[in-house]
Specification:
Blueprint (H helix, E strand, L loop, with lengths): L3 H15 L4 E6 L12 H5 L4 E7 L2 E6 L3 E6 L5 E6 L9 E7 L3 E6 L6 E6 L23 H9 L5 H6 L9 H10 L13 H20 L42 E5 L2 E5 L6
Antiparallel strand pairs: 1-6, 2-3, 3-4, 4-8, 5-7, 6-7, 9-10
This protein binds a DNA duplex through α5.
Length: about 280
DNA sequence: ATGATGTCCTGGGCGC
DNA sequence: TGCGCCCAGGACATCA
């Protein structure tokens, strides 16, 4: 499911519900997501209130007043919903619940169990194993053409693999990689050291445009993603190439069909006419 | 060291 | 209706 726009939508959605609320209970319904769920989570978080909520890459971070941070990743199929905690009722595939004061709770729903939850001291987050290899945020100035050019210069990897690699730039997954490359009119198999600085610059602005637009739409609801109130995002209706294999390209006067190929084991969609 | 491949896990959709 | 197969938005470990 969740790439940067979806994670940002979750963060924006839970923020007004739990900011300054106190954690009063933590319950896990599985002992393992991507990693084992530590038994000490409860004692590290219960009784403390939420000071700040933000996103880094595809991680959701809740800073607590005791200098601990709750880190959540949604993996492929993770969702978070905000509920009134009146009935202690777990939904299908809920893997953990965090209860807050004033009867608010977060339920983490994840059928495939590829997500994670970890509590890490706030001041050690950046150097933690989860964060230390992360590249710049795509919406920040650190992600610019000279930076990207340097990365691309001595590699013959397809450009799509570069922009999906969290080491080089974070937040872009399979959907938005295809969408950004379409907007930039660059074919996803193009070897990255063949791209000119101009093309890379256009790719950067395209990535930003696609991500910003999707955030405004509440993300893409494909299969199981929804916003924290259960409403669907809308960006799935805006997708130009992702999931449109065999359909006609939407670019004016282009009659080509959208193709699907596999790059690094992942489905990749593009227009063979518009993208060079 | 880098890039390609396999793997964690479950469910939905399809063809037979 | 049921079974088996393929596919899925992520990210790591492992191997060449």
């Amino acid at each position: 499911m969740p790439e940067l726009p979806e994670v940002q939508t979750v963060v924006d959605g839970i923020k007004p519900n739990i900011l300054r609320r106190k954690v009063i209970n933590f319950k896990a319904y599985t002992n393992k997501l991507r990693y084992p769920i530590s038994r000490s989570i409860s004692e590290k978080i219960v009784g403390n209130y939420v000071k700040n909520i933000y996103r880094r890459a595809k991680y959701i971070i809740l800073d607590l007043n005791n200098s601990q941070s709750i880190v959540v990743h949604l993996g492929m199929s993770g969702r978070i919903i905000v509920l009134k905690a009146d009935k202690d009722k777990k939904l299908k595939h809920t893997q953990f619940i965090i209860q807050f004061s004033k009867d608010i709770e977060l339920q983490y729903i994840d059928p495939r169990k590829f997500g994670l939850i970890k509590v890490i001291p706030s001041n050690l987050l950046q150097e933690s194993k989860l964060f230390v290899h992360l590249g710049p945020e795509p919406l920040s100035r650190l992600f610019n053409k000279s930076y990207l050019k340097k990365i691309c210069n001595n590699k013959n990897t397809p450009i799509k693999s570069i922009i999906m690699n969290q080491k080089y730039v974070v937040g872009i997954g399979n959907i938005y990689a295809s969408e950004s490359l379409f907007l930039a009119k660059i074919t996803p198999i193009k070897v990255c050291n063949k791209l000119t600085i101009k093309e890379l610059s256009l790719l950067i602005t395209s990535i930003r445009k696609v991500l910003r637009k999707s955030i405004q739409s509440g993300g893409s609801s494909i299969s199981d993603y929804a916003m924290v109130n259960g409403k669907l995002g809308n960006y799935q209706n805006e997708l130009e190439v992702y999931g449109r294999e065999g359909s006609i390209c939407r670019e004016k006067s282009c009659q080509s069909k959208i193709l699907r190929i596999v790059i690094a084991q992942r489905s990749t969609f593009y227009c063979p006419v518009c993208q060079k």
